From TrEMBL:
Residues 52-307 form the DUF1995 domain. Coiled coil: none annotated. It comes from the Eukaryota. InterPro entries: DUF1995, LPA3. This is DUF1995 domain-containing protein.
Length: 324
């Protein structure tokens, strides 16, 4: 009788705890191939957009206010052996962000601030994506958003930009160098700020100004801001003390919504993949057919070396997955 009593007691406790435990199935890796560029580039990036927007919804429900999205912007267009330049990367990040913002703006409207690296990039975005459908949100820059939210005196400016602004005052055509100033100050207060490629390929001050864009009651998303460089100590603290402090104080608090990074070591290729709030995944990819094998699943972010080690071992992980 005592044993039966213990059994039913344990069953009762488990039945109470199970509803409180949420198990997240793994999102399957998108159909990527790191060797030969697929023809359906837009379809692949559309898949990443769908995953990212759904992950953002989960983060919002959990009140995660600082979010990071990181993926290869030329995915499906350039393979790992092709030459790329920063202009191509900027253009693809711009296009992906404009399309993503057009969907998010259905909920947020002008309370969504889409912040570009500088005014010229903003200008190019409005030219490449004309029409109200793509401009329902507030289009601005990281620097202008920081100026409105934190005050002009809190904005960090690279020396080149300071010189250009001084020179602009000496000529009659305002905005000829840096681009026209966006009407950020007259926009509704932001509920979501979506920063396009902050810092990476541009001035380091973008990362500092991004901190000034953190909202007390809202969400801040960095899209392809190369936070791995910052976390990995790419910029020595002794040379960049302000940036190092910003990383410790601000960048380190970001949650990863979507992460897709290519791996290549000793003739083996694969991917690090994560979708919030799921576990991190490492996939080994067959170079011939593009088939993938899950070789690491981790609740915490694996280091690059841990991911490489799992790739080289090549041992499969038994895990559930769900279609997205």
């Amino acid at each position: 009788m005592v044993l039966w009593g213990l059994f039913f007691f344990q069953y009762f406790i488990i039945s109470l705890l199970l509803p409180l435990t949420k198990v997240f199935a793994l999102t399957p890796l998108p159909l990527v191939n790191k060797v030969s560029a697929p023809t359906a580039r837009s379809s692949l990036l559309d898949s990443i957009r769908i995953i990212a927007i759904k992950a953002l919804g989960e983060a919002q429900r959990n009140n995660v206010s600082l979010c990071e999205i990181e993926f290869p912007p030329l995915l499906g267009e350039k393979n790992e052996f092709a030459d790329v330049d920063n202009v191509q990367i900027l253009n693809r990040n711009r296009d992906w962000s404009m399309l993503t913002a057009s969907e998010l703006a259905n909920e947020y409207g002008e309370a969504l601030w889409l912040a570009f690296p500088d005014r010229k990039e903003l200008e190019l975005a409005t030219e490449a994506w004309p029409g109200r459908a793509y401009q329902k949100c507030t289009l601005t820059t990281i620097e202008d958003a920081a100026s409105v939210l934190a005050g002009k005196e809190q904005v960090a400016q690279p020396w080149g930009a300071q010189f250009s602004r001084f020179f602009e005052k000496q000529i009659t055509q305002e905005g000829a160098i840096l681009g026209a100033r966006p009407e950020t100050a007259s926009a509704p207060p932001p509920k979501l700020i979506f920063a396009v490629q902050p810092g990476d390929g541009g001035p380091l001050e973008d990362w500092l100004n991004l901190e000034q864009c953190e909202l007390n009651d809202g969400f801040l998303i960095s899209c392809n801001g190369a936070f791995d460089k910052l976390r990995g100590g790419y910029y020595p603290p002794i040379i960049f003390p302000k940036l190092a402090s910003c990383v410790d104080r601000f960048i380190s608090r970001f949650e990863t919504l979507l992460y897709l990074k290519s791996l290549n070591e000793k003739g083996r290729g694969g991917w690090i993949f994560r979708v919030y709030p799921e576990d991190w995944q490492v996939h080994l990819q067959d170079r011939a057919g593009g088939n993938t094998l899950l070789v690491l699943q981790s609740a915490t972010r694996p280091t690059y070396q841990e991911a490489v080690d799992a790739l080289l071992r090549g041992k499969p992980v038994v895990s559930s997955s769900a279609s997205f």
